[in-house]
Amino acid sequence: MSRIWPRLARQKLVVLGLLFVMSWLVMGRLAPTLAPYDPMLTSFEQRYQAPSWSHFLGTDQFGRDVLSRLLLGSRLSLDLGLTVTATALLIGILLGIAAGYLGGPVDTAIMRGVDMLLAFPLIYLLVTCVALFGANWNMLVLIMSLTSWMDLARFVRAEVLSLKERDFIKAAHVLGFSRRRIIFRHLLPNALTPIIAFAALRLADVILLESSLSFLGLGIQPPAVSWGSIIRDGRDVLASAWWIATFPGLAIMLMVMALNWVAEGFRKAMDV
Length: 272
Prior knowledge:
The chain has a domain at 82-271: Orthogonal Bundle (MetI-like fold), CATH 1.10.3720. It is built from twelve helices and no strands.
């Protein structure tokens, strides 16, 4: 990892992507302070105001400031994305290492389970689970985490199978190192860089999934605000009040692009 960071620092798109993601994380945390207006404050006299000096990104159908809601929505969208990604990473890494390192019946059982779950279209599975169990924060995190780890487990398994054949792993076996030490001191650190790249892509996927669910009315419910729910608020007035849906849509697009730049940067750094 120590050799990767200097290579990443030389890639302008990676630095730009990291700065963009970190900026939104900070702004999301400071949203109550940075927001020029109360995101929940309604004013029917100021409905559908176009972007102006008083409301930089305009107002929505209830007179709420779009910029304030965009800042507040970033916290929920990114927090949900990070929580789901971290949970999926934990599950995927543990099962991927178990499948790749132990092999045999353990590998077969885990991979057949992964194949079975991947056979279901993810968005339909998510919509069905949300419709059955509800769309509160905890349920969304649980459902999205349990449907986001499978391809990561397969990826980690492939990395472990490749690393198992390396000389330093064989030497560790000959020296009598414990299984735990081999996994956590040798296998996992050497697989960490591609896992980070994969995690960046997974975070982008989760943000898109949450936005899709919120757009369909199956995500976080009002009065909570996410980028997807703001787009839903503006979908019926795109022709007359384009700014309501356009700015959160741009935020999602740029966030996904930034995360893809980061992932691509890690991939290039590994190939050098």
